[in-house]
Design goal:
Blueprint lengths: L5 H13 L6 H17 L1 H13 L16 H13 L3 E6 L5 E12 L6 E6 L4 E6 L3 E6 L8 H13 L3
Helix pairs in contact: 1-2, 1-3, 2-3, 3-5
Length: 165
């Protein structure tokens, strides 16, 4: 069985996730059916598709236009760490200006109107957290491999943001 290119797979999942926002209920139903079928052959893709539906396109009530974009180099580090199931450490400044250092298990990147966010398991908070990539300082891969826990983490992430039990 040939394995799909990870970039092509991710683009296809994001497209399926966006189908419900296009104003065509027939296309939306077909996309939802495709995501449901993916669970049988690629359970991780099925979970990521649902996560993207819930968190990738949630509209913002208000967000200023002058917010800086995420750094391309930081996004490169995060994409690589997600694929490798490798922990990442970084400095972070929250929306109130508080600075912390975090080590996380990076699970996915989403793109709501407010800016690119990393969805991750945070070691400091022992919970799932969302981090604006633009507010990170110096993300660096750390030793480790959480590939054995990735599916359970994705399921927990989806549970948290959908109320699914």
């Amino acid at each position: 069985m040939q394995v799909m290119d990870p970039d092509l797979r991710d683009a296809a999942l994001r497209g399926l996730a966006l189908a419900g926002y296009r104003g065509d209920p027939v296309t939306a139903a077909a996309a939802n059916a495709a995501l449901a079928r993916l669970v049988e052959t690629d359970p991780e893709a099925g979970l990521l598709g649902r996560i993207y539906q819930v968190l990738d396109v949630r509209p913002a009530a208000y967000w200023p236009d002058d917010v800086p974009a995420a750094a391309v180099a930081d996004l490169g580090v995060l994409h690589a760490a997600i694929r490798a199931c490798q922990p990442v450490a970084f400095g972070y400044t929250d929306l109130d200006g508080n600075k912390t250092t975090r080590t996380v298990l990076p699970l996915a990147l989403v793109h709501p109107p407010q800016g690119v966010k990393l969805l991750a398991w945070c070691a400091a908070r022992q919970d799932f957290r969302q981090f604006f990539v633009r507010s990170m300082q110096g993300p660096k891969p750390q030793p480790g491999d959480f590939s054995g826990d990735r599916m359970a983490l994705l399921e927990g992430l989806l549970d948290k943001y959908t109320g699914r039990a």
